[in-house]
Amino acid sequence: MHLARIVIYPIKSLDGLVLNEARILESGALEHDRQFALADEKGEFTNGKRTPRIHLLRSRFDLASRTLAISSGETSHSFRIDADRPALEAWLSQFFGTSVRLVENAAAGFPDDTVSPGPTVISRATLDEVTNWFEGISLDETRRRFRANLEIDGVEPFWEDRLYSEEGGAVRFRIGQVLLEGTNPCARCVVPTRSSETGERYEAFAAIFEERRYETLPYWATRSRFDHFYRLAVNTRPVAGSAGDIRVGDAVRLLDR
After folding, report:
1. Containing H/E element for 237?
2. b/e string for 151-185 if b means 16 or more Cβ within 10 A?
3. In Å, how far from its chain's centre is CA 41?
4. H/E run at residue 76
5. Which of 116, 247, 256, 233 is nearest to 177 (CA)?
6. Which residue, of 71, 123, 137, 199, has the greatest Cβ tally within 10 A?
7. What is the pTM of this model?
8. Over the stretch 198-227, which tens digit does the pLDDT of each residue have?
9. Is 40 helix (H, G, I), strand (E, B) or coil?
10. With contact defined as beta carbons under 8 Å apart, do 47 and 70 qualify?
11. CA pair distance 172, 10, nearest whole angstrom
């Protein structure tokens, strides 16, 4: 089993960036993942959970130049994050119809789970399985809806459910030379129920997902962690002193259970 895909999301809730290698920081975060976020005047995130309109944006972030290419429909613009930030914030504010500013945390990013801020892990076989549950949804669309960071291949569906134990415990595993701990199956929000391109709601999505997740839950999953079955992928946290680089093709080893 090996690491097959790395995706980071430089700006929280905007499009991902596929990489061949990435660095896991001392904080446990993938470098540049959710490094930026959009926030309103109260400091609350403007994100997919609260703002379906965000799905209409297409974006690409260039890490070297810190440049964001962003478009809505036929309108496309390019902004240098440092030099053009006021112009970018003005463009975003106009698009959302409310004041929006860009905030940054280079050390830890803005993870949903601050207790387990490491990359989220899922297997490619899991993504294939879930894709088959929904008519008209492609593998890439499933990826965009669930927004996991690390994709593992060479394993069976829901292999990642081996990466957590009873509440308060953790399961150690290694990707290349980097040691991580899996902590819990990730509770999902409203985002996966919507088209990643239009924001249109698939009304029965969560109900279908929970029914099929219950039916296919593997024997190795710690069932006590499922107060509901709208959970997919695994949250992780760092092990002290284990920061380092990971690369596509790196071996993945499960160290304990």
Report:
1. strand 231-238
2. bbbebebbbbbbbbbeeeebbbbbbbebbbbbbbb
3. 25
4. strand 75-80
5. 247
6. 123
7. 0.95
8. 999 999 999 999 999 999 999 999 999 999
9. coil
10. no
11. 26
